[in-house]
Amino acid sequence: MPAECAPAPEWRGGWWRGARALPSPNFGPRPASAQVTLAVVHSISLPPGEFGGDFVQALFTNTLDWDAHPYFEQIRGIEVSAHFYVRRNGAVWQFVGCDDRAWHAGASSFRGRDNCNDYAVGIELEGLEGGAFEPAQYATLVRLCTALAARYPIDAIAGHEHVAPGRKHDPGPGFDWAHLARALRGLHWHIPPASHPADGG
């Protein structure tokens, strides 16, 4: 195939070309020996239950107006990030390159290994904890996971609730793990059977 006809690579470093890039200052290096072996699914909406605005992007880039809504007083000053954010319509943003460590899981453990941020990719879905998610979001998540599997030795995906049981409950019972398992069956990843703590430690 002539070089001018070759498809563009799907990744540019740790940045996925399928996402809109909006770099966050909230990241750091992964430990030198760490391999990316886990994807962690979260849910987020700001204010809770309200969709479609730009508050999540502002939160992850430290530009949120803390006075724009009364709820924001509860999270004033927090500095967090995720690698990816999938909107209700399936559009996806990336804030941190996957070769770097985003600040999404907090105190966490998976399969007896602590500090999931060191070896996980964080994926936020626009939604309310416990609520349902849109078909477009599942479709994007499947594309993203397939792309991640082609670049990193990931062998499992879990919810925030699984890696921080008792402390976190997202994405919650509205997330359809069975649907995701069917869609990703070719990857042979470990996938939780239901939205309750399973492999967290």
TrEMBL record:
Query: What SUPFAM superfamilies does this protein map onto?
Result: N-acetylmuramoyl-L-alanine amidase-like
Q: Where is this chain's protein located in or outside the cell? A: Cytoplasm
**What would be an example GO MF term here?**
N-acetylmuramoyl-L-alanine amidase activity
Q: What's a Pfam family this protein contains?
A: Amidase_2
State the family it belongs to.
Belongs to the N-acetylmuramoyl-L-alanine amidase 2 family.
PANTHER family, A to Z: 1,6-ANHYDRO-N-ACETYLMURAMYL-L-ALANINE AMIDASE AMPD (PTHR30417:SF4), N-ACETYLMURAMOYL-L-ALANINE AMIDASE AMID (PTHR30417)
What name appears for this protein in its UniProt entry?
Answer: 1,6-anhydro-N-acetylmuramyl-L-alanine amidase AmpD
